[in-house]
């Protein structure tokens, strides 16, 4: 798991939301894909489409079926480096839904949280140098053995893990 690349993705998403773009792409990796799916499940982004260096067709972005839908190009050794995740961003009253993203674990300092620490964070208190969740829309994402989950879901399932990022 490369936290350096995750830091680049977080800063890219911050810049894109400030620029009010509706569509962007990030490099494809399993970590990025699972984190973007967690963002989509939380309602922060509208869709995630796996594609190549060129943007996908509009019907794949909106989710509408197409009559002549060609299949996605298979992944080979020659095209693995050019795979991209295309993300549709959401806005509400001309403000981005995806707010500021900040990295919790750094490449040289990884922060692991157990269930009691997560309970304190979800209640709004500071634990293990991680500030509590105080705003209603604030989220903390963790990499667990059950996949990437939001902190409140981890508390419900009694699972700890590596703290990845916070969305405010």
From TrEMBL:
Alphabetically ordered keywords of this record: Ribonucleoprotein, Ribosomal protein
SUPFAM superfamilies: Ribosomal protein S8
GO BP annotations, alphabetical order: translation
Domain of life: Eukaryota
GO molecular-function term, one example from the UniProt record: structural constituent of ribosome
UniProt cross-references to InterPro entries, sorted A to Z: Ribosomal_uS8, Ribosomal_uS8_sf
GO cellular component, one term: ribosome
Matches recorded under Pfam families: Ribosomal_S8
Family in the record: Belongs to the universal ribosomal protein uS8 family.
Name assigned to this protein: 40S ribosomal protein S8
């Amino acid at each position: 798991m490369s936290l350096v690349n995750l830091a680049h993705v977080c800063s890219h998403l911050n810049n894109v939301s400030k620029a009010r773009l509706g569509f962007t792409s990030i490099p494809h990796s399993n970590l990025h894909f699972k984190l973007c799916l967690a963002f989509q499940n939380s309602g922060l982004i509208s869709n995630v489409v796996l594609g190549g260096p060129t943007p996908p067709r509009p019907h794949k972005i909106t989710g509408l079926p197409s009559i002549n839908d060609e299949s996605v190009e298979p992944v080979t050794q020659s095209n693995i480096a050019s795979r991209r995740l295309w993300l549709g961003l959401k806005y509400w009253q001309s403000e981005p839904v995806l707010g500021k993203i900040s990295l919790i674990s750094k490449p040289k300092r990884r922060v692991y949280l157990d269930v009691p620490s997560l309970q304190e964070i979800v209640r709004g208190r500071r634990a293990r140098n991680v500030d509590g969740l105080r705003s209603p829309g604030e989220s903390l994402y963790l990499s667990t053995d059950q996949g990437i989950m939001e902190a409140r879901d981890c508390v419900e399932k009694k699972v700890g893990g590596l703290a990845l990022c916070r969305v405010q």
